[in-house]
Design brief:
- The chain is α+β, with helices and mostly antiparallel strands and about 450 residues long.
- It is about 40% helix and about 10% strand.
- It has twelve helices and eight strands.
- A four-stranded mixed sheet has the order 1-4-5-8, with helices on one face.
- Helix 10 (about 350-370) runs antiparallel to helix 11.
- The longest helix is centred in the last third of the chain and has 30 residues, at about 315-340.
- It is globular.
Length: about 450
């Protein structure tokens, strides 16, 4: 990894929180000038990507990040932040650059050929979900403290959302936050299915602060340091060999009221904001957005050649079907993103993209296994590429469940987009402590 050179500083390297992309007068830079600036900075500060290097798989031991790996990636993210290319569209007053989505897209395009920081699934949760939620609902003091640290890689955040007794029914959480005489809070309970918690610094935690009101009204969010006394984190061994998911236990964990996100009892409003960001964030393992014609399912074409089935007519039809799936999802995602960026769209439109991924990803994963046949289930232990098809198959249904099941997306689309009647529920108006649980 190359060190930051004097030329790199001249090409855009600034002090932490600097605005490398802006002109001397602070104006938003012209897109062509910005692209030239980005190219110069990347060439001077980052290593070129090895095209032959395999992508990090979501699953297997390779997906688990060691402390040494996390430290390396934090340092790399810090370099990007100090160069002025982290949080490009985030408000400048909280450590971002205050530029437009077009500027961000330029950096994404130009940086694809370079080695950029990969802080895993928790890194994506930090910048795609937790950060935007804190920007929307956190106090100015909280945002000024934590947003720059999130952008620089100093703080990695995860969602402390689901519980053993509250999955799709997210308003059914029972983790309690009790206020003390000093105004702070004591947290007791547990969370589960938290991606990347084992190397994260903070968790954005939904807790019940008033059990005497209906379940949607007695909730509050807190930023919880995961190194606090009373926090226990246990990785969960998964079917794909990974321990990406974790469960967390809170035993009399003291949380400052300064770490509260949003008003007391208004946690469901914050939760709905978070779910919008989560669904608009897309699948972190998907390829970058394309425009125009795209290459024919390159991963499956390479697989067919690898197993000697590139001339088989059935295989060719399977690859064509996967190509259609890729194209449909890409166009849907682009359309939803364009509507969302316009600011005039229903904020729940992300459910369409989420439902498409949850529905079509398993189909595409099955296509890969059908092409691979026996090679998809048996391989030499030292063949690092051969396990990809099997891992993709095992991971294929992740988005049918994580972040809200397919069924919940359909409910959301019908009720909050199409305006259909809500399905009957017996527990919406009754106090939470009067409901039967589990």
């Amino acid at each position: 990894m190359s060190g930051q050179t004097a030329e790199g500083q001249a090409a855009g390297g600034q002090a932490a929180g600097g605005t490398a992309g802006r002109t001397a007068a602070g104006a938003v830079p012209d897109l062509d000038d910005y692209r030239r600036q980005v190219r110069a900075w990347l060439a001077a500060n980052l290593d070129r990507r090895d095209d032959d290097a395999p992508a990090r798989l979501r699953g297997g031991d390779a997906a688990n990040l060691s402390p040494e790996r996390v430290a390396e990636q934090r340092a790399l993210q810090r370099r990007v932040y100090e160069g002025g290319y982290a949080g490009i569209t985030w408000p400048a007053e909280f450590g971002g650059q205050g530029l437009t989505p077009a500027h961000e897209e330029i950096f994404e395009q130009e940086s694809r050929g370079y080695v950029v920081a990969d802080l895993g699934i928790a890194g994506l949760t930090t910048t795609r979900v937790c950060g935007p939620t804190i920007l929307a609902h956190g106090t100015d003091e909280f945002r000024r403290t934590h947003i720059p640290r999130m952008l620089s890689g100093e703080e990695i955040w995860v969602q402390l959302f689901s519980e053993p007794g509250a999955g799709s029914d997210l308003a059914g959480v029972s983790t309690r936050a009790t206020r003390t005489d000093t105004g702070d809070w004591v947290l007791n309970g547990s969370k589960v299915w938290t991606s990347g918690a084992y190397y994260a610094d903070y968790g954005l935690c939904l807790a019940r602060t008033d059990p005497t009101v209906p379940k949607h009204r007695g909730l509050t969010w807190f930023g919880v340091p995961l190194t606090s006394d009373g926090v226990t984190i246990r990785p969960i061994r998964e079917i794909n060999g990974s321990s990406e998911f974790c469960e967390e236990f809170f035993d009399d964990v003291v949380v400052s009221d300064a770490n509260r996100i949003g008003a007391v009892g208004d946690g469901w409003t914050v939760a709905r904001t978070m779910m919008v960001f989560e669904r608009l964030g897309g699948d972190p393992d998907e390829a970058p957005r394309h425009t125009g014609a795209r290459e024919l399912a390159p991963d499956l074409v390479a697989l067919a050649r690898r197993v000697g089935r590139q001339g088989d007519p059935v295989t060719r039809q399977l690859i064509a079907r996967a190509h259609v799936i890729d194209l449909v999802k890409e166009q849907l995602d682009a359309y939803v993103a364009a509507l969302t960026e316009s600011g005039a769209a229903n904020p729940n439109l992300g459910s369409y993209s989420k439902l498409a991924a949850g529905t079509l990803n398993p189909v595409r994963a099955s296509i890969g296994l059908e092409i691979a046949a026996a090679a998809g289930v048996v391989w030499h232990p030292q063949d690092t590429e051969a396990s990809t098809t099997a891992l993709n198959y095992l991971n294929g249904r992740i988005l049918a469940i994580a972040g809200g099941t397919n069924e919940m997306q359909r409910n959301g689309i019908s009720e909050r987009i199409l305006g259909l009647p809500r399905e009957p529920a017996h527990d919406l108006d009754r106090p939470f402590n009067e409901l039967r649980h589990n």
